[in-house]
Amino acid sequence: MVFLAAVAVNIAIWAIDYFAVGYQSSNYYSVTYTVSSVADAVTPNLDSTQMFATTNVNSTLSVAIGLVYSWVLWKFPLIIYSFNLIEKK
Amino acid sequence: MILLAIDILLTVYVLAVYNEYIYYGIYVILTLIIAIINNAGLNRTKEALCNALIPLMLIAFLYVCYSLFLPTLYNVYLNNLSSMSSIFLVVYAYPFFDLLFYGLTLFLGTKVELSVKSFFANIHFLMIGYGVGMILIIGYTEVEFYYLIGYFIFKNIFVNWIVRNWEQVVSNPPCLPGWGILYYVSYGLSFIPIIGVGKLVIAKSFMSYIFAKTSTILYTYSNPLYPSNTFSATSLTFNSSLNGNIYWLSGVIIWVAMTFTQRYDRKKPNLYDFFYALCGIHLFYMGIASSLSLYVLASFANLK
Q1: Are B250 and B141 in contact (CB under 8 A)?
Q2: The whole model's pTM is what?
Q3: What single string gives the DSSP state of each residue in B96-162?
Q4: pLDDT for res A29
Protein backbone atom coordinates (compact mmCIF):
# COMPACT_ATOMS: atom_id res chain seq x y z
CA MET A 1 0.00 0.00 0.00
CA VAL A 2 2.85 2.34 0.83
CA PHE A 3 4.40 1.65 -2.55
CA LEU A 4 1.08 2.20 -4.33
CA ALA A 5 0.72 5.52 -2.52
CA ALA A 6 4.16 6.51 -3.83
CA VAL A 7 3.12 5.45 -7.35
CA ALA A 8 -0.03 7.55 -6.93
CA VAL A 9 2.12 10.57 -6.06
CA ASN A 10 4.07 10.07 -9.28
CA ILE A 11 0.89 9.75 -11.34
CA ALA A 12 -0.61 12.79 -9.60
CA ILE A 13 2.44 14.85 -10.52
CA TRP A 14 2.11 13.62 -14.09
CA ALA A 15 -1.61 14.51 -14.16
CA ILE A 16 -1.03 17.98 -12.75
CA ASP A 17 1.69 18.62 -15.27
CA TYR A 18 -0.27 17.21 -18.16
CA PHE A 19 -3.68 18.74 -17.50
CA ALA A 20 -2.91 21.94 -15.64
CA VAL A 21 0.65 23.07 -16.22
CA GLY A 22 1.60 21.94 -19.68
CA TYR A 23 5.30 22.49 -19.22
CA GLN A 24 8.24 20.26 -19.43
CA SER A 25 10.67 21.37 -16.88
CA SER A 26 14.08 20.09 -17.65
CA ASN A 27 16.86 22.18 -19.07
CA TYR A 28 17.18 19.24 -21.41
CA TYR A 29 13.76 20.10 -22.73
CA SER A 30 15.15 20.99 -26.10
CA VAL A 31 16.51 17.89 -27.76
CA THR A 32 19.40 19.86 -29.20
CA TYR A 33 20.49 21.21 -25.82
CA THR A 34 23.95 20.18 -24.73
CA VAL A 35 25.36 20.59 -21.29
CA SER A 36 28.66 18.85 -21.34
CA SER A 37 31.45 18.32 -23.78
CA VAL A 38 32.30 15.12 -21.95
CA ALA A 39 29.11 13.16 -22.31
CA ASP A 40 26.14 14.46 -24.15
CA ALA A 41 24.17 13.61 -27.21
CA VAL A 42 25.57 15.19 -30.32
CA THR A 43 22.62 14.02 -32.34
CA PRO A 44 19.21 14.84 -30.89
CA ASN A 45 17.64 11.82 -29.28
CA LEU A 46 14.10 11.60 -30.52
CA ASP A 47 13.26 8.91 -27.99
CA SER A 48 13.10 11.66 -25.48
CA THR A 49 11.41 14.29 -27.51
CA GLN A 50 9.11 16.91 -26.09
CA MET A 51 5.39 16.70 -25.64
CA PHE A 52 4.68 20.39 -25.36
CA ALA A 53 5.76 23.38 -27.39
CA THR A 54 9.39 24.36 -27.02
CA THR A 55 8.76 28.06 -26.58
CA ASN A 56 9.05 27.99 -22.81
CA VAL A 57 12.36 26.21 -22.47
CA ASN A 58 14.14 27.40 -19.37
CA SER A 59 11.52 30.02 -18.60
CA THR A 60 11.20 31.00 -14.96
CA LEU A 61 8.05 28.94 -14.58
CA SER A 62 9.48 25.80 -16.16
CA VAL A 63 12.62 25.98 -13.99
CA ALA A 64 10.51 26.56 -10.87
CA ILE A 65 8.26 23.63 -11.72
CA GLY A 66 11.32 21.48 -12.31
CA LEU A 67 12.50 22.32 -8.80
CA VAL A 68 9.13 21.41 -7.29
CA TYR A 69 8.95 18.08 -9.12
CA SER A 70 12.49 17.11 -8.22
CA TRP A 71 11.89 17.95 -4.57
CA VAL A 72 8.64 16.02 -4.31
CA LEU A 73 9.92 12.93 -6.11
CA TRP A 74 13.56 12.71 -5.07
CA LYS A 75 15.19 15.39 -2.97
CA PHE A 76 12.73 15.59 -0.09
CA PRO A 77 12.62 11.78 0.31
CA LEU A 78 16.42 11.88 0.47
CA ILE A 79 16.23 14.45 3.26
CA ILE A 80 13.87 12.13 5.13
CA TYR A 81 16.74 9.65 5.05
CA SER A 82 18.92 12.24 6.74
CA PHE A 83 16.29 12.51 9.49
CA ASN A 84 16.35 8.74 9.81
CA LEU A 85 20.10 8.91 10.41
CA ILE A 86 19.86 11.40 13.27
CA GLU A 87 16.96 9.66 14.96
CA LYS A 88 17.66 8.65 18.55
CA LYS A 89 18.78 5.06 18.81
CA MET B 1 15.89 24.75 4.25
CA ILE B 2 19.60 25.16 3.66
CA LEU B 3 19.50 22.51 0.95
CA LEU B 4 16.47 24.09 -0.69
CA ALA B 5 18.23 27.46 -0.73
CA ILE B 6 21.35 25.84 -2.19
CA ASP B 7 19.30 24.07 -4.83
CA ILE B 8 17.55 27.29 -5.86
CA LEU B 9 20.85 29.17 -6.04
CA LEU B 10 22.48 26.40 -8.06
CA THR B 11 19.49 26.26 -10.40
CA VAL B 12 19.56 30.01 -10.95
CA TYR B 13 23.31 30.50 -11.30
CA VAL B 14 24.75 27.22 -12.58
CA LEU B 15 21.84 25.61 -14.38
CA ALA B 16 24.01 24.31 -17.18
CA VAL B 17 27.05 23.30 -15.14
CA TYR B 18 26.06 20.13 -13.38
CA ASN B 19 23.91 21.83 -10.78
CA GLU B 20 22.32 18.50 -9.90
CA TYR B 21 25.69 16.88 -9.27
CA ILE B 22 26.86 19.77 -7.12
CA TYR B 23 23.61 19.63 -5.16
CA TYR B 24 23.94 15.89 -4.56
CA GLY B 25 27.54 16.34 -3.39
CA ILE B 26 26.53 19.06 -0.94
CA TYR B 27 23.62 16.95 0.27
CA VAL B 28 25.93 14.01 0.98
CA ILE B 29 28.42 16.20 2.87
CA LEU B 30 25.69 17.88 4.97
CA THR B 31 24.08 14.52 5.75
CA LEU B 32 27.44 13.13 6.80
CA ILE B 33 28.12 16.10 9.08
CA ILE B 34 24.76 16.00 10.86
CA ALA B 35 24.89 12.22 11.18
CA ILE B 36 28.32 12.37 12.84
CA ILE B 37 27.42 15.30 15.10
CA ASN B 38 24.22 13.65 16.29
CA ASN B 39 25.89 10.34 16.99
CA ALA B 40 29.27 11.52 18.27
CA GLY B 41 28.24 11.66 21.93
CA LEU B 42 27.07 8.08 21.74
CA ASN B 43 30.40 6.92 20.34
CA ARG B 44 28.71 5.75 17.21
CA THR B 45 30.83 7.78 14.80
CA LYS B 46 31.89 4.81 12.75
CA GLU B 47 28.31 3.54 12.39
CA ALA B 48 27.10 7.04 11.50
CA LEU B 49 29.83 7.32 8.88
CA CYS B 50 28.87 3.99 7.30
CA ASN B 51 25.12 4.62 7.46
CA ALA B 52 25.43 8.03 5.82
CA LEU B 53 28.09 7.38 3.23
CA ILE B 54 27.59 3.83 1.99
CA PRO B 55 24.06 4.03 0.53
CA LEU B 56 24.48 7.51 -0.93
CA MET B 57 27.89 6.88 -2.46
CA LEU B 58 26.76 3.50 -3.78
CA ILE B 59 23.86 5.18 -5.60
CA ALA B 60 26.30 7.69 -7.12
CA PHE B 61 28.75 4.94 -8.06
CA LEU B 62 26.13 2.78 -9.77
CA TYR B 63 24.70 5.80 -11.51
CA VAL B 64 28.06 6.79 -12.95
CA CYS B 65 28.73 3.21 -14.03
CA TYR B 66 25.34 2.89 -15.71
CA SER B 67 25.24 6.24 -17.42
CA LEU B 68 28.90 6.80 -18.19
CA PHE B 69 31.17 3.77 -17.72
CA LEU B 70 29.11 1.13 -19.56
CA PRO B 71 28.21 3.44 -22.49
CA THR B 72 31.90 4.37 -22.75
CA LEU B 73 32.81 0.71 -22.86
CA TYR B 74 30.22 0.12 -25.57
CA ASN B 75 31.68 3.10 -27.44
CA VAL B 76 35.13 1.50 -27.28
CA TYR B 77 33.70 -1.73 -28.69
CA LEU B 78 32.01 0.18 -31.50
CA ASN B 79 35.25 1.93 -32.39
CA ASN B 80 37.22 -1.30 -32.57
CA LEU B 81 34.76 -4.00 -33.61
CA SER B 82 31.91 -4.40 -36.02
CA SER B 83 28.52 -3.20 -34.94
CA MET B 84 27.11 -6.69 -34.39
CA SER B 85 30.19 -7.91 -32.52
CA SER B 86 29.93 -4.89 -30.22
CA ILE B 87 26.29 -5.63 -29.44
CA PHE B 88 26.99 -9.26 -28.66
CA LEU B 89 29.96 -8.33 -26.50
CA VAL B 90 27.85 -5.85 -24.54
CA VAL B 91 25.07 -8.37 -24.00
CA TYR B 92 27.22 -11.35 -23.13
CA ALA B 93 29.55 -9.38 -20.86
CA TYR B 94 26.73 -7.64 -19.00
CA PRO B 95 26.19 -10.42 -16.39
CA PHE B 96 29.83 -10.00 -15.33
CA PHE B 97 29.31 -6.33 -14.50
CA ASP B 98 25.92 -6.95 -12.94
CA LEU B 99 27.37 -9.64 -10.72
CA LEU B 100 30.14 -7.27 -9.69
CA PHE B 101 27.70 -4.49 -8.78
CA TYR B 102 25.29 -6.89 -7.10
CA GLY B 103 28.03 -8.48 -5.02
CA LEU B 104 29.30 -5.07 -4.00
CA THR B 105 25.79 -4.03 -2.97
CA LEU B 106 25.29 -7.17 -0.90
CA PHE B 107 28.67 -6.73 0.75
CA LEU B 108 28.10 -3.07 1.60
CA GLY B 109 24.63 -3.96 2.86
CA THR B 110 26.30 -5.81 5.72
CA LYS B 111 28.08 -2.60 6.76
CA VAL B 112 24.97 -0.54 7.43
CA GLU B 113 22.73 -0.82 10.48
CA LEU B 114 19.34 -2.46 10.55
CA SER B 115 17.60 0.89 11.03
CA VAL B 116 18.64 2.10 7.58
CA LYS B 117 18.24 -1.20 5.76
CA SER B 118 14.87 -0.23 4.35
CA PHE B 119 16.48 2.73 2.57
CA PHE B 120 19.48 0.73 1.47
CA ALA B 121 17.24 -2.02 0.06
CA ASN B 122 15.79 0.42 -2.44
CA ILE B 123 19.09 0.41 -4.32
CA HIS B 124 17.82 -2.87 -5.75
CA PHE B 125 15.35 -0.78 -7.72
CA LEU B 126 18.25 0.91 -9.51
CA MET B 127 19.88 -2.40 -10.41
CA ILE B 128 16.66 -4.10 -11.45
CA GLY B 129 15.76 -1.05 -13.56
CA TYR B 130 19.03 -1.27 -15.45
CA GLY B 131 18.76 -5.04 -15.82
CA VAL B 132 15.19 -4.87 -17.15
CA GLY B 133 16.18 -2.20 -19.68
CA MET B 134 19.12 -4.27 -20.86
CA ILE B 135 16.88 -7.27 -21.51
CA LEU B 136 14.20 -5.14 -23.16
CA ILE B 137 16.52 -3.63 -25.75
CA ILE B 138 17.39 -7.07 -27.09
CA GLY B 139 13.92 -8.15 -28.13
CA TYR B 140 12.10 -11.24 -26.98
CA THR B 141 12.54 -13.25 -30.16
CA GLU B 142 16.29 -13.38 -29.63
CA VAL B 143 18.24 -16.02 -27.76
CA GLU B 144 20.22 -13.29 -25.98
CA PHE B 145 16.97 -12.16 -24.35
CA TYR B 146 16.63 -15.56 -22.72
CA TYR B 147 20.34 -15.71 -21.99
CA LEU B 148 20.02 -12.63 -19.77
CA ILE B 149 16.74 -13.85 -18.25
CA GLY B 150 18.42 -17.17 -17.52
CA TYR B 151 21.28 -15.34 -15.85
CA PHE B 152 18.90 -13.35 -13.64
CA ILE B 153 16.91 -16.46 -12.72
CA PHE B 154 20.11 -18.29 -11.79
CA LYS B 155 21.42 -15.33 -9.81
CA ASN B 156 18.13 -14.77 -7.99
CA ILE B 157 17.68 -18.41 -7.06
CA PHE B 158 21.29 -18.78 -5.97
CA VAL B 159 21.26 -15.62 -3.87
CA ASN B 160 17.72 -15.73 -2.50
CA TRP B 161 17.29 -19.44 -1.89
CA ILE B 162 20.81 -20.72 -1.24
CA VAL B 163 23.06 -17.88 -0.02
CA ARG B 164 20.24 -16.46 2.05
CA ASN B 165 20.18 -19.61 4.12
CA TRP B 166 23.83 -19.11 5.06
CA GLU B 167 24.07 -15.38 5.46
CA GLN B 168 21.41 -12.75 5.96
CA VAL B 169 22.91 -10.42 3.38
CA VAL B 170 19.99 -10.27 0.95
CA SER B 171 17.43 -7.62 1.70
CA ASN B 172 14.99 -7.09 -1.14
CA PRO B 173 12.35 -4.43 -0.52
CA PRO B 174 8.87 -5.99 -0.31
CA CYS B 175 7.60 -3.72 -3.05
CA LEU B 176 10.32 -4.64 -5.58
CA PRO B 177 7.88 -6.47 -7.91
CA GLY B 178 6.08 -3.14 -8.20
CA TRP B 179 8.51 -2.19 -10.94
CA GLY B 180 6.06 -3.89 -13.32
CA ILE B 181 3.43 -1.29 -12.45
CA LEU B 182 5.92 1.52 -12.94
CA TYR B 183 6.98 0.22 -16.32
CA TYR B 184 3.52 -0.20 -17.76
CA VAL B 185 2.09 2.98 -16.24
CA SER B 186 4.98 4.92 -17.74
CA TYR B 187 4.54 3.14 -21.05
CA GLY B 188 0.84 3.94 -21.16
CA LEU B 189 1.19 7.55 -20.10
CA SER B 190 4.42 8.31 -21.98
CA PHE B 191 5.66 9.36 -18.60
CA ILE B 192 9.07 9.36 -17.05
CA PRO B 193 9.96 11.88 -14.38
CA ILE B 194 12.99 14.08 -14.53
CA ILE B 195 15.67 11.65 -13.79
CA GLY B 196 19.24 11.35 -12.75
CA VAL B 197 21.41 12.26 -9.82
CA GLY B 198 22.74 14.65 -12.37
CA LYS B 199 21.26 15.05 -15.79
CA LEU B 200 23.62 12.77 -17.60
CA VAL B 201 21.06 10.23 -18.68
CA ILE B 202 19.64 11.10 -22.02
CA ALA B 203 15.99 10.42 -21.14
CA LYS B 204 15.63 14.01 -20.36
CA SER B 205 12.07 15.13 -20.48
CA PHE B 206 9.41 14.82 -17.86
CA MET B 207 7.07 13.24 -20.36
CA SER B 208 9.09 10.96 -22.48
CA TYR B 209 8.55 8.45 -25.23
CA ILE B 210 11.65 6.58 -24.24
CA PHE B 211 9.67 3.42 -23.46
CA ALA B 212 7.77 3.45 -26.73
CA LYS B 213 10.38 4.74 -29.14
CA THR B 214 13.56 3.07 -27.98
CA SER B 215 14.46 0.49 -30.56
CA THR B 216 15.89 -2.90 -29.87
CA ILE B 217 19.62 -2.97 -30.56
CA LEU B 218 19.42 -6.06 -32.78
CA TYR B 219 16.44 -4.81 -34.77
CA THR B 220 17.02 -1.11 -35.00
CA TYR B 221 13.81 -0.69 -36.94
CA SER B 222 10.57 -2.59 -37.03
CA ASN B 223 11.24 -5.99 -38.42
CA PRO B 224 8.85 -8.79 -39.37
CA LEU B 225 10.99 -11.14 -37.32
CA TYR B 226 10.33 -9.11 -34.23
CA PRO B 227 6.68 -8.36 -33.47
CA SER B 228 6.30 -4.76 -32.51
CA ASN B 229 3.79 -1.99 -32.98
CA THR B 230 5.30 1.10 -34.43
CA PHE B 231 4.54 4.06 -32.28
CA SER B 232 1.90 6.15 -33.95
CA ALA B 233 2.51 9.85 -34.40
CA THR B 234 -1.21 10.39 -34.02
CA SER B 235 -1.25 9.18 -30.43
CA LEU B 236 1.24 11.65 -29.06
CA THR B 237 -0.25 11.86 -25.63
CA PHE B 238 -1.49 8.53 -24.33
CA ASN B 239 -0.22 5.17 -25.41
CA SER B 240 -2.83 2.97 -23.80
CA SER B 241 -2.49 0.30 -26.48
CA LEU B 242 1.21 0.04 -25.55
CA ASN B 243 2.45 0.52 -29.07
CA GLY B 244 6.17 0.76 -29.36
CA ASN B 245 9.39 -0.57 -30.82
CA ILE B 246 9.78 -2.86 -27.83
CA TYR B 247 6.91 -5.32 -27.83
CA TRP B 248 4.62 -5.01 -24.79
CA LEU B 249 4.86 -8.70 -23.92
CA SER B 250 8.60 -8.49 -23.17
CA GLY B 251 7.99 -6.66 -19.91
CA VAL B 252 5.58 -9.35 -18.71
CA ILE B 253 8.06 -12.15 -19.46
CA ILE B 254 10.84 -10.34 -17.58
CA TRP B 255 8.54 -9.50 -14.67
CA VAL B 256 7.48 -13.12 -14.19
CA ALA B 257 11.08 -14.35 -14.41
CA MET B 258 12.41 -11.75 -11.99
CA THR B 259 9.59 -11.69 -9.47
CA PHE B 260 8.99 -15.33 -8.65
CA THR B 261 12.65 -16.20 -8.28
CA GLN B 262 13.24 -13.77 -5.42
CA ARG B 263 12.20 -13.56 -1.82
CA TYR B 264 11.15 -10.35 -0.15
CA ASP B 265 11.42 -9.04 3.37
CA ARG B 266 8.09 -8.75 5.10
CA LYS B 267 7.64 -6.03 7.66
CA LYS B 268 5.05 -3.58 8.81
CA PRO B 269 5.56 -0.37 6.80
CA ASN B 270 6.09 2.96 8.49
CA LEU B 271 6.12 6.54 7.27
CA TYR B 272 9.77 6.31 6.29
CA ASP B 273 8.90 3.53 3.88
CA PHE B 274 6.57 5.81 1.94
CA PHE B 275 9.40 8.24 1.23
CA TYR B 276 11.83 5.43 0.54
CA ALA B 277 9.36 4.02 -1.96
CA LEU B 278 9.48 7.40 -3.73
CA CYS B 279 13.28 7.08 -3.78
CA GLY B 280 12.98 3.53 -5.10
CA ILE B 281 10.67 4.62 -7.91
CA HIS B 282 13.10 7.36 -8.89
CA LEU B 283 15.98 4.90 -8.84
CA PHE B 284 14.06 2.46 -11.03
CA TYR B 285 13.46 5.16 -13.62
CA MET B 286 17.13 6.14 -13.48
CA GLY B 287 18.19 2.56 -14.07
CA ILE B 288 15.83 1.75 -16.91
CA ALA B 289 16.43 5.09 -18.65
CA SER B 290 20.18 4.47 -18.47
CA SER B 291 19.98 1.10 -20.14
CA LEU B 292 17.40 2.16 -22.73
CA SER B 293 19.75 5.02 -23.60
CA LEU B 294 22.79 2.77 -23.84
CA TYR B 295 22.95 2.69 -27.62
CA VAL B 296 22.29 6.43 -27.98
CA LEU B 297 24.93 7.31 -25.42
CA ALA B 298 27.51 4.96 -26.89
CA SER B 299 26.87 6.01 -30.48
CA PHE B 300 26.15 9.72 -30.30
CA ALA B 301 27.59 11.04 -27.06
CA ASN B 302 30.99 12.68 -26.82
CA LEU B 303 32.54 9.73 -25.06
CA LYS B 304 36.25 9.95 -25.64
Answers
A1: no
A2: 0.87
A3: HHHHHHHHHHHHHHTTS-GGGHHHHTTHHHHHHHHHHHHHHTT-TTSHHHHHHHHHHHHHHHIIIII
A4: 36
Work out the minimum CA distance from B123 to partner chain A, whole angstroms: 13
What confidence category does residue B286 fall into, taking pLDDT thresholds of 50, 70 and 90?
confident
Tell me the residue range of the domain where B95 lies. Answer: 54-300
Same domain, B17 and B166: no
pLDDT digits (tens, 9 = 90+) for B244-254: 778 888 889 99
**pLDDT > 70: percent of chain B:** 82
| B100 found inside a domain | yes
B43 and chain A in contact, CB less than 8 A: no
B102 with B198, same domain?
A: yes
How many structural domains are present in chain B?
Answer: 2
A27 vs B199: CB contact, 8 Å cut-off? yes
Same domain? B151 vs B99: yes
Asked whether the beta carbons of residue B208 and residue A27 sit closer than 8 angstroms, the reply is: no
Please say whether the beta carbons of B19 and B10 come within 8 A.
yes
Verify that B141 and B253 share a domain, yes or no: yes
**B200 CB contacts (<8 Å, ≥6 apart)?**
A36, A39, B63, B67, B68
* The pLDDT value given to residue B224: 64
